[in-house]
Amino acid sequence: MVKGYVGNEMFEKALDLFEQIDIELDDVTYTIVFNACAKLCNDRAMKIGKKLLAKMPENYRNNNITSTSAIDMLMKFGDVESAERVFRSIKAKGADIYGALMNGYNLNGESWKCFKIFEEMKEKDIIPDEIEWNILIGACSKSGMLHQCQYIVNQIPWNIQNKIRTQIALIDMWGKCGSIEKAKIVFNLVVDRDTITYTAMINAFALNGMGTQAVELYREMPNNLRDHVSKICVLNACSHAGLLHEARTIFNEISLKTESIITTMVDCLSRLFMFDEAQQLIEDYEKTNTPSIVMYMSLLSGARNNRNSNLSEKIYKRMKTLFPNAKESLAAGVVLLSNIYSSLGKHEEA
């Protein structure tokens, strides 16, 4: 029953049942409950997961599947040290164990540790599979170190490099590291390009300030492959490259304008100081939807960049009225206002 609940993503019910039953636990049960706790990642799940791990028999620690689940759970809790202790306690480690640890480092902003773990794998002749290679590529993306990226890529077997998931990860990696030509080489090698492939390349162009190329690729992309994310990516590319006409054209072509798409367009207009148009978009959106604080933050950020103190004050007052309990966003708004006043020499207001 517990397995059934987890399989149907009913994680709270899985834990309810687990706490009610009184049976001898086997490695499968440990794995299932660890997975449920990892998915929930709330206070209750942390308490249950850590308590269960503390009483898990030593022989189960050498079950790679169970230990992988335990490491994944702890990493999702943000408890890197405990995950590392579990990892070190395992006598015979498979590639999946190393993958779980490296993935956890990526999740917790400690990607640099992945490279040390990779060297340990090499020393012990443990061969990464596609999953581990993609995790390493993800670590390279976060590191932004071009030499580290090339070092890892040089060791990835061709049969792995030719897999679509790896190619997408490589496009993303090269784009984030500023090597757009290498991203294009990988993109051109992809035989059956899907939505994610196109979007990864559009985003790579956007990250490198190549808005025109991003728009051109978006135009080449078959209509049936354009999804919500690809539309946001190309609008972002236009925003950062100052391509107002292209952004307007693409935005007007979109029939289903979601909150995220409208927010991206508001950000684009605000960056280019088209405040009346941005405010009109927000007003139109609010006629049928709940106000979005992200839209107002984009507008306020644009007003800050334009050093427009009057507009900034109006936006901030509107935010306080609409979102009185959004303490973090309001605090960020105060900082933006203070920056504007300081830049204008209005130190008393700041």
Automatic annotation (TrEMBL):
Keywords: Repeat. One of its GO terms (biological process) is RNA modification. InterPro entries: PPR_At4g14850-like_plant, PPR_rpt, PROP1-like_PPR_dom, TPR-like_helical_dom_sf. This is PROP1-like PPR domain-containing protein. PPR repeats lie at residues 94-128, 194-224. It comes from Rotaria magnacalcarata. Residues 13-174 form the PROP1-like PPR domain. GO terms for molecular function: RNA binding. NCBIfam families: PPR (TIGR00756).
